[in-house]
Write a structure and sequence with these properties.
Helix content is about 35%, strand content about 15%. The chain has 19 helices and 23 strands. Strands 3-2-4-5-7-6-12 form a 7-stranded mixed sheet. It has a 6-stranded parallel sheet with strand order 15-14-16-17-19-18, with helices on both faces. Helix 10 packs across helix 13, helix 14 packs across helix 19 and helix 15 packs parallel to helix 17. The chain is globular. It starts with a strand and ends in a 5-residue tail after the last strand.
């Protein structure tokens, strides 16, 4: 059956059709929908793991047991999973194991533009890179074949444009291969030095065989062109841009297996053209491989290693005339992202800003606490870094920082990477205050469940971790819960914990305002006769509040009646509309 499918949905369909049995992932844009789509198939066991390392290890365990498995993550998540990745490359697999990693060129929802192709080369693990939804489905199935034929995990590399664009795919039936029996093999699976040193030659020999596969496989293909003055090597979205701009004018070597890359095929292609150009996003990965082969391609001399490419940019650099698209006559005002109306984090960040706290932040939608007018967060690096960093910050500065520095971390991020940092604070005793922003969901990636919510990926009841009990068990005597809608309670909690002479945890607890089950109060309105236009309410940066004709104004379609703004108003100008939420 032919249908239009999102790239991520197509990848999920391919995994399903190939008989994938066990899935463990951690949500991360732009990879999240692969696992969400897989969870719709009852034949496949799916779960959200606490982090990517756990997900990869769980998928490896399922492969070891003889069932085809999968784990998915975004590019920075692969950093977290790198530890098991490099060793699983040595052990190999039993049943097929596929790892999807989704890069985010342009940093649409990420803190860097990391190029995951380097991990494939460093870990010596093959990587397939689809250029549309049809290939996402086909390559997912092919990945299992390669995994089992060459005894290796296999990467399926997605990126934002392929993951989140749609194209036509033809779906097939699910074929479930028989489970592979698990056999005890200490030399293969127990990676103590004496065994590991004997596995390294196996990996190197496997790479040679995979290079031979890259030479003959139709994953890498030459598309002939009319004009051989230029030959182009490309993959993924770059291939699509090249074909849209050039059509069949120039020959193209389209790489679907991005590691290991072929050698003879590239040399033969280069010999057939006058000028070799590599079109690729981010790093000069393909270009560098060509140079190792003794070629002198053009690549990053034409295309920047920064951000995404585009059809117009490819056309410009290749010297191809292209009709300019329509342009706007007026400048569009910038619309920076803001926390949603009624966001439970807003009141807490206002309190921290008002108390002039140094705030070490973390990864999540609450990172928006760094932008004006709250401008509260001063550092964000990676998942869990806030908790680890505040310990080092306070150890370095002592009393100079202890009374005014806090770490903030979301509930899902805390479960992902914050617990070990908190254990370090308890064990090595820095006088640090950690604030867990518990909005009862994994918010930034689209409302996925996590170990603190009490529900699994399908929404069924699951194990629920009690944050208060966990923090006390780690050795914290001072653990308190506040409602971030209550500014007075937040202010008291922050002041008291910063004055304390021991480590402490504040849990700021209120569900995300966008959750379907959250019942909101009636929206507020402004009494124009009372409002004096002081703009105090604007200090919280709520998108539902604006100033019109010198008076505050509430957009009732956005307001959730949280009441934070009314606590800032000295003249009691905010009133309930009494309307049903």
């Amino acid at each position: 059956m032919k249908k239009l499918m999102l790239g991520n949905a197509a990848a999920a369909r391919g995994l399903f059709e190939a008989g994938c049995a066990v899935v463990s992932s951690y949500p991360g844009t732009p990879s999240t929908e692969i696992t969400e789509e897989l969870a719709k198939y009852d034949e496949v066991y799916c779960e959200w793991a606490p982090n990517e390392k756990v997900a990869m290890e769980a998928a490896f365990g399922a492969s070891l047991a003889g069932k085809r498995s999968f784990c998915g993550m975004k590019h920075v998540g692969l950093n977290v999973a790198a530890d098991p990745l490099f060793t699983i490359s040595y052990t190999g697999v039993n049943a097929g194991m596929v790892i999807a990693v989704a890069d985010d060129a342009g940093m649409h929802s990420s803190q860097n533009e990391q190029d995951s192709r380097h991990y494939a080369r460093a870990a010596k693990v093959p990587m397939l890179e689809p250029s549309d939804s049809a290939e996402a489905l086909a390559f997912a199935k092919k990945a299992y074949e390669i995994s089992e034929a060459y005894d290796t995990p296999v990467f399926l590399k997605m990126c934002t444009r392929i993951a989140h664009s749609q194209s036509v795919v033809e779906t097939g039936e699910r074929i479930t291969p028989p489970a592979k029996p698990y056999e005890k093999n200490i030399g293969k699976y127990v990676m103590m030095p004496g065994n590991a040193i004997r596995r390294h030659p196996v990996v190197e020999e496997r790479t040679k065989k995979l290079i031979a596969l890259a030479e003959e496989s139709d994953l890498n293909r030459v598309e002939q062109g009319e004009d051989h003055s230029i030959g182009i090597i490309a993959s993924s979205t770059s291939y699509q841009y090249v074909k849209e701009v050039c059509g069949d004018k120039y020959p193209v070597l389209k790489l679907g297996m991005i590691w290991p890359m072929p050698e003879k095929k590239i040399l033969d292609f280069a010999a057939s053209v006058d000028r070799l150009i590599v079109v690729e996003e981010l790093d000069s990965f393909i270009e560098d491989h060509c140079r190792v082969l003794g070629l002198k391609p053009e690549g990053k001399s034409l295309f920047s290693p920064l951000g995404e490419l585009s059809q117009n940019l490819v056309a410009e650099k290749l010297g191809i005339g292209r009709e300019a698209g329509p342009t706007l006559n007026e400048t569009v005002p910038p619309r920076p992202p803001v926390m949603c109306a009624g966001c439970p984090h807003r009141g807490l960040f206002y309190t921290l800003s008002r108390n002039k706290c140094t705030v070490l932040g973390d990864i999540g939608c609450y990172t928006l606490g760094a932008v004006a007018p709250l401008s509260a967060i001063e550092m964000t690096a990676c998942m869990g870094a806030s908790v680890s960093a505040i310990h080092g910050f306070n150890k370095a500065l002592g009393k100079e920082s202890e009374g005014k520095t806090v770490a903030v971390i979301g509930d899902s991020t805390f479960m992902h990477s914050g617990m070990t940092g908190l254990a370090n604070i308890a064990y090595n005793q820095s006088n640090s205050t950690v604030i867990i922003l518990d909005n009862s969901i994994t918010g930034m990636t689209g409302h996925q469940q996590n170990p603190t919510t009490g529900y699994n990926i399908k929404g069924d009841p699951a194990g629920k971790i009690d944050l208060e009990s966990l923090c006390r068990a780690m050795g914290f005597n001072r653990v308190r819960v506040v409602d971030p809608y209550d500014l007075k309670a937040c202010d008291e909690a922050v002041k008291e914990e910063l004055r304390a002479a021991e480590p402490s945890v504040i849990i700021s607890r209120r569900p995300c305002a966008l959750l379907k089950y959250v019942k909101h109060k009636a929206p507020l309105k402004v009494n124009g006769e009372k409002c004096v236009g002081c703009k105090s309410c604007m200090r919280i940066g709520c998108p539902a509040i604006s100033i019109k004709n010198g008076k505050a104004r509430v957009d009732e379609t956005l307001c959730v009646g949280c009441g934070v703004c009314s606590q800032l108003c000295r003249v009691d100008a905010f009133e309930s509309t009494g309307k049903e939420a």
